[in-house]
Known about the structure:
Blueprint: H1 4-12, H2 16-25, H3 38-45, H4 48-56, H5 60-74, H6 82-89, H7 93-104, E1 110-112, E2 115-117, H8 136-140, H9 145-155, H10 161-168, H11 171-178, H12 183-193, E3 198-200, H13 210-214, E4 219-220, E5 225-227, H14 230-237, E6 254-256, H15 259-286, E7 289-290, H16 299-309, H17 313-325, E8 329-332, E9 347-350, H18 359-371, H19 382-395, E10 401-403, H20 406-416, H21 425-439, E11 442-443, E12 446-447, H22 449-456, H23 460-469, E13 476-477, E14 482-486, H24 491-500, E15 502-505, E16 509-513, H25 516-524, H26 529-539, H27 546-558, E17 562-565, E18 570-573, H28 575-583, E19 593-596, E20 599-601, H29 606-615, E21 621-623, H30 657-666, H31 678-686, H32 693-703, E22 708-714, E23 717-729, E24 732-737, E25 742-747, E26 751-752
Amino acid sequence: MTSADELLGRLAALDREELAKVLAHRPDALHEPWPRRLDVVAARLATAQSVNEAVLGLSLPQVQVVSAVQLCHALGRRPVPVGEVAKLLGTTAETIESFVDELAERALLWRDPDGIRLPELLHKRNFSAEGLGQPVAELLGEIGRSRAARLSQALGLPEGHKELVHFFRDGDRVREVFGTAPEPTRKLLRDMADGVPEAEGVLSFHTAEGWAFEHGFLFSTYYGSAVMPIEVSLALRGPDHQLPFTPAEPGYAVTHVGAESVEATSSAAALRLLDRVSAVLDRAGVEPFPLLKDGTIGARLVKKVAKDTGGTPAEIELAIDLAAQAGLLLADEPPPPRRGQKAPPPTLAPDPDLARPEPALLYRLLLTTWWEPAPPEYEADVDALVRRLVVRVLARLEPGTAIADVDALTRLAEWHAPMLPIEDFAGHLRDALDTAELLGVVAHGAATATGRALLEETGLVEVTGELVARARTTALFGTDLTAIVPGSPDARLAASLDRVADREAQGTATSWRFSPASVRRGFDQGSTAAELLDELGAIAAGELPQPLVYLVNDVARRHGEAQVHDVASVVVGEPAVLAELAAHRKLAKLGLRAVAPTALTSTVDASGTLDALRGAGYAPTHHAADGTIVLPARETDAAEPRVVVRDAGPGDRPPDPLDHAERLLAAPSSGPSLLRGQLARAMSDRYAGRLTPKQQQLCWQLEAGIPAEIVYQADAGPARLVIAYPELDGDVLDVWSVGDRAYRRLELTRIDLS
């Protein structure tokens, strides 16, 4: 196969199931806009990017079969007989057949009655990876006619390129001439044939080794090196030489960790992730996270958030990263600073227009963001490929079964994807495993139900809903002023306890401890004693213990015993309390001064005075100038969010290869191409031969493949459409409607370009 035209003929000869297999293995052929016909499919499959993506997904034996076919093709066997490939790999034709079929299903080679053909993009000229050089036909094309004539004379051949190529492809004749070479030359050539096909520096013709150049066993290159033709290397390695072939995947030992244990750990990880993401969003909502120059969050901030929320730095870093990728956190660029002022850093804060998804939906959003991140523009996303590879390999095992050794898992993964451009495969694999454990996709080294649902692209809603439903919604309150949640708390329970208690431990159970300072936080946010007790009672597995009730009521009685006013930072309270404050040694820095029996003034602003009084063990309240209590900023009313996250609908799912195969085979294989200026000429009839410069520009824009907005006068009324990829069919324009994600046929007389 040498072009997309030949590939089109191959595709047209397939039946529905065969074409569906090609489309399933090469999903980039079905990217939007859907291909109208098979000629579009062939053009997409024939691109270098598409072929490279397909090669990245090949297993080791598939790569080895392709390499053997490429070598035979380079040696002039076109098409390549299956028996030649099998002989080169040291196996039987029956063994090779299955791999050839798998490669044909990926349109990476095609079968003919007399052998195998390769697409043009897979033709290969250099085989240094196999320890071989270049075909002799390529090397002969780089030397002059006089040099070729001397080479023919040295070998006793008639002059001609064809005769020389035929000689070097005959291993017996090459070995016969090799036997006449001087011993030093034979030793040099044997060493090079064993895997060093190119050596720096051209050997002198005046030495014994010059024999190799005179007889074509070595060729000099433009860069001053000496290269041995592939045919010579193979001949000197002997007629029984074979390329490496590893049809069986590496062995590995498995360990049974139990399906119930795996799913329990997966549920705990999912709920822990939701807790971390919710905490990150809450903190960023109060105080946006500053970004470094490279657009990342600083390690110091990550550690601080982890310490404050009871998580690990890895959990917080993952939570921030996924929240940002999913659009829950948005980067905000500050306005340019005034002259002489330093520009503040950009920040990361929640999207004010986005409603917080409910827990199960939020978990699905985070999962799919990790599983299918936005791809890089010019290269493959290696991390995404590795994580999907790891989950796919583990999901082949029985539920609750893991591969015991990470090194064995690495060897197995490398066998399944040897072409991934990774230097430290083991490091990438460990990172993927660690992140998958934090997400609940892998637990104890085994694939979870969540991981299997991601692979199958079905049942994810049910699986994630069940995981989140396992969260504890109640806590056990003790008389020692602690609350314990056996298992994983749901987001509502964790938020309620975090508001009035401090986390102490986390693992199979999470515990919180109540203190006067922690309970005071609830009052500082505007709650009353009755509201706090009602909220705690709603999440308690039984009655609230009396010590906790006494603590809440006691803090409530003391709350507001001193009042900090914004006006000149005046402290107002009972005379006895104010006298105590004025005499308190720790509060001397405030410069408290009595101006009345019930009022003190402070030299520190209201915020600093509040912090100092609370640090000394008091429970002041913050009042505005008119005497009203000032609540934290996050309690202020905010605009209702306008954007709501939803689950993927039928139109959002990947295209069905079988449906598209049926549609493509029913359509014509090829169609008309839109020539430059053809659309403008057709539309000029719509406007009585006159198009404005803007209308002409829209026509040229559409012809160049750039989407454009038009108004279409439909029967139901005018509609604005964004269209692209037009094809002219008489008086009808067949276009891709971006909003509808489908093709539409528009009458030219109804299209308004103005």
